[in-house]
Design brief:
By secondary structure, this protein is α/β, with parallel strands linked by helices. It contains eight helices and ten strands. The strands form two sheets. A six-stranded mixed β-sheet has the order 6-7-8-3-9-10, sandwiched between helices. It has a four-stranded antiparallel β-sheet with strand order 2-1-4-5, with helices on one face.
Length: 278
């Protein structure tokens, strides 16, 4: 049984307005064989401003496709996505994206990689951009790395840079596609702590795709569970645990209980099993 937890005000979303609405959105494509393949089923979801929401589901269920549709990188086959009340019809500028791999430009210094978002948008002066990049680097433990190049950094350090680049223009929405999936356990835990701290400071809305149930439960306000392909949302679980959590899954019995609940919902036939128990 889940333990009752009082969530302090500081752990709740900064704003309660709906920032992202997904209504009956589905995506299909035609395979080389000519067969129509459904990447997702119909998805309905709302995110509040300032929420941290994780999505878990089996490989191929459409999690990444959903992120691409939200970002306007691909169009849904049906339904509509509204961001800040406007229908998404193309690439969305007011967001940050962090991929599983850092995707840094090897010929630019770390500082210039981070400041690229601001330069492309013609925001601030070169001096201001350098100052902002240095401040973010310091916040993730990389002070003094401004003039190094990506190939001089470890994988974990590169992903910290990628996170800084996604946040430097203070986006209202941050999309994260398994950003820590390729890292070792210790580096992953450190980055989870960095991400939680930066989110609590800036409070963007975060949609975080992961295969790691413990990671989803530890970081998020809500965990969205998707079925296998074509993926649909089968469960929306609120995580009522105070922050900061600091990767506290191993020590926190409430987080452990939530993790067991999410895993049960991911198990094949979980719906049938639950009905049988009732």
């Amino acid at each position: 049984m889940l333990e009752p937890v009082i969530v302090p005000e500081s752990s709740l979303p900064a704003e309660q307005g709906v920032i992202l609405t997904i209504r009956d959105v589905a995506r299909s494509f035609r395979a080389r064989s000519g067969e129509t393949v459904s990447a997702t089923g119909k998805i309905n979801l709302e995110l509040l401003a300032g929420e941290f929401v994780a999505i878990v589901g089996a490989s191929g269920c459409g999690k990444t496709t959903l992120l691409k549709m939200i970002g306007g990188l691909v169009s849904p086959s049906s339904g509509e996505i509204r961001y800040k009340g406007q229908i998404v019809k193309g690439p969305v500028n007011d967001l940050g994206i962090v991929f599983q791999r850092p995707v840094l430009l090897d010929w630019l210094t770390i500082s210039r990689n981070i400041a690229l978002q601001l330069k492309m948008r013609r925001l601030s002066t070169p001096a201001q951009r350098r100052m902002l990049a240095s401040s973010l680097l310091e916040s993730v433990g990389l002070a003094g790395y401004e003039n190094r190049y990506p190939w001089e950094l470890s994988g974990g350090q590169q992903q910290r840079v990628s996170l800084c680049r996604a946040l430097i223009h203070k986006p209202a929405l941050l999309l994260m596609d398994e950003p820590f999936g390729a890292l070792d356990a210790l580096t992953r835990e450190q980055l989870q702590n960095d991400l939680e701290r930066l989110w609590m400071e800036q409070r963007p809305t975060v949609l975080f795709v992961t295969h790691d149930v413990g990671e989803a439960v530890t970081l998020s306000d809500r965990v969205i569970v998707m079925s296998g392909r074509p993926g649909v949302i089968t469960e929306d679980i609120s995580i009522a645990v105070h922050r900061p959590r600091r990767s506290g899954l191993l020590e926190n019995s409430t987080l452990q209980a939530y993790a067991r609940k999410v895993r049960a919902k991911l198990a094949p036939g979980s719906d049938q099993d639950e009905r049988a128990i009732k």
